[in-house]
């Protein structure tokens, strides 16, 4: 956030003479308290002319929106910014050349109570005090005071500020006139006015209160009286102002009384100050006041810096106020180097300084303030970070672009601002658009760097065509140019502006132009190497190396370090670069060292000079070999315990959030990186020294036993240390790969398969969008938790306030080193795997091949990383190679047998193979799964319970690959019957899904020990009964299975069941078609069985049970409460019953084909009677006849329906029986569904004629022996009032003429009845007897004939009743006459017959 203050007229440019640059900071009072939100938290600021940038950093909490920028236009800032704490606010007091300001921000403790911390991953975020900065609050007039000037001589030289306990904001301003002006802003919420007071060196003081304009130019006491530096601090109940002017008088002013209560001449503390007393301080002298307050705020130490042209010094005093007068108690005087002081800060007993050398470098030094001895040797130099290399070494086999890009974007190497500035410089030269000085994504920054350098290469090319060598040289030149520009901007950005010193924790931070640096305590081993000749280290070394029995060895170590440094200084840097490159390519360190030393020995002059100096130190050592042994022991981090206490809850709370913020993690990791780099150099130098000693041999003057021990013991151990530290150096500087959500999800699935707990899943959120090292990733997650658990054993965290920085950071760095040390922890490679750093894990394993500990575990993790990198062949080899350690190494043992510490070796390896198989299955590697599973089977014992699982895995993947025969053989080989059955079920289902039915049917499903045919049938039946018939057809498969094995009755049974289910579950035309085919298949199968066995048991109505669970559940309980099973009735079906069902289905199918009405498709199959009615209504007479025959039903409905159709057709036709019209032509649709009788004229006949002919045919076939169908037809015709067809009358005459006569009478057909009686009389008399079906007629000797006299009498009676009509009278008489004749004839024939009978019997008539 940016805010702007407008402070004056744009016409007044007097402030432009001030171009102040500076920086500083403030550590919270409770920064050393474990439970405080302010622990390891501080504020720093940077000033550039009129801009003030404030930022807040916490090493324990990640702060959001932690910076704010203020711009004071038309004014210049003074560097004396002060920060103060009140109960609820943080007050920043700012002074400009025109105004003073009190900026208010909420205190962190208040923010913690108001705003709950938000957890994000492993980092806990908190709001910064600058998160909710308000411009309106900052511009409140109560928090600002504007100076007024009326002359050009007015100028503010320096200032100081303080916040009193009552809340008054006190500002002191030293004016160029020699006046010191005090401005007091009232407390918050007070209505009081601003108070202004002038302090002058004369005896008369002026008090200007109530906001009156001060009289600024009342004269001065001379230039010497002008205050050069100011400082405000309370003593007792008053606030005092300390001033130091060019007259070197340190004055102490009472702010409440406005008087000078003390004046001390600094000349008294400057040795050889005669010249200064005479002439005064020379031009360019510099004076600074600083203070240090103890944690209890009971005492204050005042530090005075005096700088002259030829010397500089620090004087430390303790000011006190007694009786209203001030006094100074001199503590010590410290002389500084002849360099320019940038800033200094104080903490109890220490002074930290920041110097600028003539070469432009920044140096930090510290010294103890409590010592009374003076001299420059009291200063201790702070070892600065390794300087950036001025050029990048490019090996011959690598590309210059690649090497420079790797160096530029190494995490922590260059700031984004420096890279952007270098890019813009090149863009300016190329006349292209500049990039904004803002946050740019890393990928975009990489692209921009490559783009500008490539453009510069093309622009610098003098010719269009260049040889490869010329292009490579030009490329290297331009990249070196860009890198050199980048280094310059990085150095400029690292320009120091000020110091932040926290007296509670010992933290010291360096505010730089573009960053903040930290000064950390140096671990003793590092300090011993970096400053081998410094004194006072013997005791520390002795404690560290546990060498209390031999104190002389500590001095030997110091001399040995001097020898190592001497050798390093003598070797060319390129040789050391090649040494590290060869290590990266896995060459033997001993061989590399031998080569480097041999090249070094090629220059005798250089060797002799170095060796003489080194030998002189060696001769002073009491035991050279033991000192090497001790140094190796010191370099081994596994031998460096962090703490020995057990720890308690309070200490756990103290370290719970220690260094968990982004800044904290980065800081610790950078410190670890520095330590690893130093220790690598140390180990490298030791290896080279030992190699040099061995090559010189007898020239060293060492005994043969010592040389032999060096060669066989110390040299290999040192080489291992070199490899270890090279690995850890790589780890500290290698960038982590951003991880996608899909990769995280895949990693979680892999962890679940392997049974690995998701350690450190709280991944720092910045990993995805900012580059960080692998070590930062590890420390920002699970690694940091492990380190904090280890720190709980350190008693230093019990102190209050806790010296986190002075005494806690070194154990923290060592704890981190132990967590990543290959010989003490395996968490790091496991962490890399869990967090998807597969490329880094592969490189880690490659660089740690020399480490024998956990070698198999690393091979296993390498295999998993190869799997994720789509290199399955490499992964498989790694998994196999890791088998040997499955029962020996803790990690693999935990993978194979979670929770078990040991177990049978063979069984453990089999379990390990099972976990690996799970991984291979996840990545879809069936070939490797099969191969590995076979290996596991060959290794397992015969009674191993995992054999069944292994066989099942092989079966699964053989089947997936389409290797049906191999899958079949594997299934039979499975020793577990239940697993075998599961495999069989999957085998059958997969083959069905693939439509490989022939293979499924033809396999034998048996061997010498296993018979699976019944299980096949059971499984297929279960699947058939459980799966929707519309999508799968296991019934047909079962049918084929049984037919292939000539089991026709089972084949018929299964197809009948199929047909049943189709009728119940599948409606529609297709369902009926399938049902009909199923019944036909069942009939065909049963007809192939012997007649006695051609039957089946009717399946259950709802057969949904599984193959083995064929019994229903209990339907009730007996008297004892025991469930009783259901008693099923068994129904046996023979061919006839199945055929009947088929006939019904076929009939329904015909109905649907004729009229696909939805209502006909729904519902169960109709009964025979219902089907008969439907068929007749649809005109399917032949099918109806079949139904009647099969189910023994009367055909009356058929004849009735057909007769009605014939009558309707006849009634709707033109000129009966001639040709079709629109109505009768539709009758062909149902006529074609029946078998029409053959007729010579059928082709030219109408549909009506065909219908009558069909009726005639049916009566001929089914009504010749019975008159019920004739009567039915005739009744239907007569009921419709339609004339009877001649063929029907003729047929009826032959069948039953008497019944025909009665029907005529019933329907009052007197004419037809009379005609029929007359014809009957003729037929019995012998005329036309064949028309009535008579075999004889009335004559002598013939059998008797008869006539329906009752019907004839009824006819005569009816005719007599209608005699009123002549026609019927005539018929009546005709009929009577014929009857009389007939009776006469009957009488005559009867007499003749009687006579003949009597004659034959011997009687006479």
SSE topology sketch:
Elements: E1 2-6, E2 21-27, E3 41-48, E4 51-58, E5 62-64, E6 67-73, E7 82-85, E8 89-95, E9 99-106, H1 108-114, E10 118-120, E11 123-127, H2 135-138, E12 144-146, E13 156-163, E14 169-175, E15 180-185, E16 195-199, E17 206-208, E18 227-235, E19 238-245, E20 249-254, E21 259-265, H3 274-279, E22 286-293, E23 300-307, E24 312-322, E25 325-335, E26 340-347, E27 350-356, E28 362-368, E29 380-381, H4 400-408, H5 416-430, H6 442-460, H7 468-493, E30 496-501, E31 508-512, E32 516-519, H8 524-530, H9 538-545, H10 552-570, H11 573-584, H12 589-601, H13 604-620, H14 624-635, H15 649-655, H16 662-696, H17 704-733, H18 741-754, H19 774-779, H20 782-791, H21 804-820, H22 827-834, H23 838-847, H24 855-868, H25 872-881, H26 890-896, H27 905-922, H28 926-939, H29 947-960, H30 964-973, H31 977-993, H32 997-1002, H33 1013-1026, H34 1034-1044, H35 1048-1065, H36 1068-1087, E33 1095-1097, E34 1116-1117, E35 1123-1124, E36 1132-1134, H37 1135-1154, H38 1158-1161, H39 1168-1178, H40 1181-1191, H41 1196-1211, H42 1222-1225, H43 1228-1231, H44 1247-1262, ...
Parallel strand pairs: 1-6, 5-11
Antiparallel strand pairs: 2-3, 3-4, 4-6, 7-8, 8-9, 9-12, 10-11, 13-14, 14-15, 15-16, 16-17, 18-19, 19-20, 20-21, 22-23, 23-24, 24-25, 26-27, 27-28, 28-29, 30-31, 31-32, 33-36, 34-35
